[in-house]
Amino acid sequence: MYAHEHTTTVSPPRVGWFFAYDWDRQALDYLGAGARCATFDHAGFDLFSFPSNAALIGFDLERFAAREAERGRRLRWRGVLSHHEQFGTLAAALVAERLGLPGAVPESILAAQHKLHARRVLREVAPEANLGFAELNARYGDPVPEGVPYPAYVKPVKAAFSVLARYVTSREELEQHLRFGPFENWIIRGLVRPFDRVCRARLPEAGSSHRIMIEEPVSPRVAQYNLDGWVRDGRIHALGVVDAVMVPGTQAFMRWEVPSRLDPSVQGRALDVARRFLEAIGYRHGFFNLEFFHDPVDDRLMVIECNPRLASQFADLYRRVLGVDPHAMALALAVDEDPATVPHVAPTADCAASLVYRTFPGEPVPVMPDAMRREAFTQAYPDALLFTFPKQGAALARDFKWTGSHRYGIVHLGGRDRDDLRARAEHASASLGWPAPYRDHATGATFDTGPAGWPESDLA
């Protein structure tokens, strides 16, 4: 799916790539064996598949970084990269630091990924774009303290993929959300512990990552967006903006779309906020992804979080519509070349979407397409990307509890215009036996209220 070609006559660089799965795995395969832009040495494990994720037992980021740095020294890596939120991005920064290769300062990765610390930084450098927030003075499984203003949005200080992030309206609802069994507690602590160990040593002022925080809820009229770009030598550059379309009445994504409908002036303001935040945390080299809300009524821009990495899911959308290959650009940046010099390719669509298929508690879980359906789908939609995430039993129940829904598939498609894209998406979904992610989805959940109940004295 990637069309960047390596055109130089010198040998392609050797690069370490950590935790490359799904979109990153496709890019690694193409840019490596396909386009021969680089020779890649991969390391890491897939958090979402067994037995690969058994490597989480006893995983230590510093040991991983030390081992990979030794391999990189032996194999003469010219760069390291990762777009993996949970472990890979920080691991790449640690290895680059050990080898003296281009990369982000590890402390800047920690500052961005520790959500409570990031809020404190935003309060100082971009208060107009910050949400009200506070630390919830309780560890996982502890009783919920009194005095929490409801409604509230609760989220872990360190997590990924919206795990355990939830809108709550009462103390009872919050206590139920934070009640975990022994195995769930083990998983949560195992996911957070590697990051927390490094954070305590390198950014102690951030505090423990084994915590929950609460944030000011937003109005249901707000829209969500992603600003993508990169920083090189401390200078920030915009790549583009991706629009989020939510399942109505929930916080769950239904699809992502390019090009953006957001006014260019608001996009410019988002880039300025990103610049101020990234400068404040010392992030001077790497891709970034700023998630933010925009309220069209009062024109308020509100940062959700700023991720110090490429948002891999969106790379294919940019390639289809803008003719740029963010994965190839990230590779260039990893070996200290200017991403802007990576050749463009011919766009294949005027608009594109990442279609997210999910089901909610109480609804049937659609069947995964068999080999015959997959083959028919590929023949009918040769430009499509298809990812499936089947779960059952305890893993399925954990999805519902931790994220409020089960994401069982993703499809990428392009179209001549938005009407054509919708028609293709509906036909493609039917061929898989799945409901198209354009429908209104009545669930009874609400994501409402705005800042009512959040007195100024309670906000951090």
Key terms for this structure?
single chain; 460 residues; Alpha-Beta Plaits; alpha+beta; 4-stranded antiparallel beta sheet; 8-stranded antiparallel beta sheet; disordered C terminus
Can you describe this structure?
The chain has 460 residues and is an alpha+beta fold. Among the domains are: 132-217; 351-432, Alpha-Beta Plaits (2-Layer Sandwich), CATH 3.30.70. Helices cover 35% and strands 21% of the residues. The protein has helices at 23-34, 61-75, 88-99, 106-113, 115-125, 171-177, 182-202, 264-281, 312-322, 326-334, 371-380, 393-403, 418-432, and strands at 14-18, 39-43, 79-81, 133-136, 152-156, 166-168, 212-215, 223-232, 235-246, 253-258, 286-295, 300-307, 351-359, 385-388, 406-415. An 8-stranded antiparallel sheet has the order 12-11-8-9-10-13-15-14, with helices on both faces. A 4-stranded antiparallel sheet has the order 4-7-5-6, with helices on both faces. A 3-stranded parallel sheet has the order 2-1-3, with helices on both faces. A hairpin with a 4-residue loop joins strand 11 and strand 12. Helix 2 (61-75) packs across helix 3 and helix 5 packs across helix 8. The longest helix has 21 residues, at 182-202. The protein is globular, with a radius of gyration of 21 Å. The chain starts with 13 loop residues before the first strand and ends in a 28-residue tail after the last helix.
